[in-house]
Amino acid sequence: QVQLVESGxxxxxxxxxxxxxxxxxxxxxxxxxxxxxxxxPGKERDLVARIIDDDAxxxxxxxxxxxxxxxDNAKNTVYLQMNSLEPEDTAVYYCAAGSxxxxxxxxxxxxxxx
Length: 114
Hints:
The protein is mostly beta strands. Helix content is 0%, strand content 50%. The protein has strands spanning 3-7, 10-12, 18-25, 34-39, 45-51, 58-59, 67-72, 77-82, 91-97, 103-104, 108-112. The strands form 2 sheets. Strands 2, 4, 5, 6, 9, 10 and 11 form a 7-stranded mixed β-sheet that branches. The chain has a 4-stranded antiparallel β-sheet with strand order 1-3-8-7, with no helix packed on it. The termini are far apart.
């Protein structure tokens, strides 16, 4: 059974950084397209970043230049490094695996506030 577990969220001040992790079990994460999404209260779930094989990662315009998605295949983990965080980045962040986002994690809360 494929499971994804996100971690690394928390409370951070504007301008700060966090690194989110998405650890896979029951599968080899390098086989999958991995996407980070986020959902703020009262808003739809939005794509943040996506990594597909060896292709260049895809980023939402709102995070391009601030966020970086990467893989560590040895740890079966995909990361989302988030720098220069803004209050507008506050949301629950989810990772999903598969070309059709077949598998989802439970989410991790990121709160950016002074």
